Fold each of these.
Amino acid sequence: MMLSGKSTWLFPNKPKIISTGVIGGPFEADSNLSKDFDYFKDDLWMEQASFEKAQQLLLEDASKLAVKKAQINEKDINLFISGDLMNQITPTTFAAKMLQHPYLGIFSACATTTEGLALAALITNNHSGKYILTGAASHHAATERQYRYPTEYGGQKPPTSQWTVTGAGCAIVSTEGEGPVVTSATLGKVIDMEMTDPFHMGGAMAPAAVDTILTHFKDQNIDASYYDLIITGDLGKIGSSICFDLLKQRGLHLQRKQYEDCGAMIYKESQPVFSGGSGAACPAVVTYGYLVNEMKKQTYNKILIVATGALHSPLTVKQGDSIPCIAHAISLENEGDQE
Amino acid sequence: MMLSGKSTWLFPNKPKIISTGVIGGPFEADSNLSKDFDYFKDDLWMEQASFEKAQQLLLEDASKLAVKKAQINEKDINLFISGDLMNQITPTTFAAKMLQHPYLGIFSACATTTEGLALAALITNNHSGKYILTGAASHHAATERQYRYPTEYGGQKPPTSQWTVTGAGCAIVSTEGEGPVVTSATLGKVIDMEMTDPFHMGGAMAPAAVDTILTHFKDQNIDASYYDLIITGDLGKIGSSICFDLLKQRGLHLQRKQYEDCGAMIYKESQPVFSGGSGAACPAVVTYGYLVNEMKKQTYNKILIVATGALHSPLTVKQGDSIPCIAHAISLENEGDQE
């Protein structure tokens, strides 16, 4: 079986991230990771008629850029796998309409990046496609409209709230070419600690990240020293601190420098983002920008990326439901460093 | 490559539909296909606090039934793949929370059944899971609330409109066991003929079905006589008539008895469903109920199932966008009848 434990997929045929496209908005141009974006859009509208269409454009442009940087043709792409936070994932669908690749829509909120990367790796590992395009986008203002409307003038947010990243990160996965190797994927279960505060999603999602990380270590029968870095998706400063403590409580003793969070690291202290970044683009731009770059520099040779998603809707919150969460993990390893 | 053409996955390791669970609502108990459901819920509320929770219950119950009928344990399931029409696919997510299997959320509206079945077949073909659970549910009243609210008292619908099926159909896919073999999957592109009427989704989706069917025949290099039956998802009476004519125009001459549509066949003439059934459950209950049963009786030995999805949202309709559509095709063949 190309399976370890119950839910960790193995990819012995070495699918790799052979190319990426990473675009941000104006706010991201001032972030900690600004050097890891290919370029930035100058304003939130991006000459589009709506914020949703701006999000669509980000995804289209990041996709085309990944194809261009891979030095392949658009028609070489076998499949496009993507999704987003918006109702019926319409920005992604309209991008897929423009790109005209065969298309699989997925939904796991901010865990979209690792769900898509897991599927892309599986497909290429099974020789069911040569070049798979995957990625995710989000847009601060489109997300605010859907989840937080009406956004009142002067309305305050609690310190646990997070800032949706405006951007898109895309990758091309193939067994041919060079780049970080996708060695395994651990698919998470829905974990729901009965939290009900949509302004504290980092806290709601932390237990899902912990569950998937522990499952991954158990399935793979490895210890805490295996990875140079374990990085969660968008728990933010508060959520990632909870995650680190929970992992320790549950027996996984990481060194502090072994653990990061995309949402906690992306913005500067001086940016007014409360607990940090979030959104489907958050793990997408950090993974396909910063992490891929640092792996190429061999700052890190073995990384576990654990994107997390809060799977509630405005309707379920109004109906009094708790916030169900999920996390999917992907291990990336430089060739020569795989055991 | 386990690929034919650009986007038709091949499954030489013979993943099979080894078990199904099919549940309907009270309206479906009076349908043409009532004998192909395992059982029916007596009312739309199903003792739940909301229609969305009733939809969740349908999916949970159909999933558990498929596991029970396969004579395996819940813990034997490696992965649950599902999605639905609701914002952020929350009924599916809350079902996944109760089932506690590793979970991949997908979104392709009423094409969810074939997207899920394609992925389940790929995963088992790649030996990345022994038992994969997949399926889809929809609920008439939950869908009306989201897409057609306010549903006015006495408000009339045009004859092109369709009736969302209340029900759930689930299947367990495995390379071990007996049942119809999933031999290939053709993944569709987004096709958008710039139609803007959300009360004529059959017409909007028909060209997507046509595109995927023609791609499948080209990729597989087969002719119209290959399949005993080609069945589209939920085009309804009007949309399926358009599809049949378009296929003929484009050079695929099917005999009338070779072509059906889940939405056109599910309800009786006497039921007030306008152009027919729709919803994510429509192709799910017809595929995992009627079609699997008829294949077991060898009424059909080779079927191409082409579930179709209209990927718009209420927001994109209000913003004046057209209705982007998709279709994913799955070929099911009885063992001994594969060429």
Amino acid sequence: MTDTRLSMRLDLTSGERIGPGKIALLEAIRSTGSISAAARQLGMSYRRAWLLVEQVNGALRKPAVASAAGGRQGGGAIVTPVGEQVIELYRSIEGIARSSAREEFRAVSKLVRKSRKARSQRTA
Amino acid sequence: MTDTRLSMRLDLTSGERIGPGKIALLEAIRSTGSISAAARQLGMSYRRAWLLVEQVNGALRKPAVASAAGGRQGGGAIVTPVGEQVIELYRSIEGIARSSAREEFRAVSKLVRKSRKARSQRTA
């Protein structure tokens, strides 16, 4: 309906920020079961992914990602219940913002220049 | 009440993004009447401010900032009615998100590690 999308960033008291990149990373870790596989999925270096996980973990009272060391595969990572809550709260704030400010998004879209891509999508 | 703040970014079809930095710049141009004074106020180079203004203008059907060339001061910049609308819509989406997702913000704040600064603010 509206062409404008919203990205949100949560600015925490610790100074850390949780935005779309970190949430996508948590979701990728949840679905792949490892930081390296999640990094590959997102086209990000392992080092970068690891640093983002450290930042998220450091910002929270309890870690969002824990290592699932041991076992036959010898490693892997899991999203903890706290991590699940962070993902869920972020996505729900996003959904609430989108649905509550529908009129405003429409109004912004009217001010925005249409890209060629948007026009072709409309034709299709 | 809640310690977590929200920053929003609007991702436009054109590929441009309008976030807190560009909105603060528009507001500073509005209050100072020039791009260079606005840049100074925000601790940003003139070149950077000019590029951000170009990006915002390029993303919209009509410019958000126009030059107020001529006159005794020989220059200056004004925020156009479209620019005013962009500022207003951005701030209102922000306010709507904040007030509609109050519970979720509180829940996020509970998961977040408290900074020393936040604690001292609470005491004060």
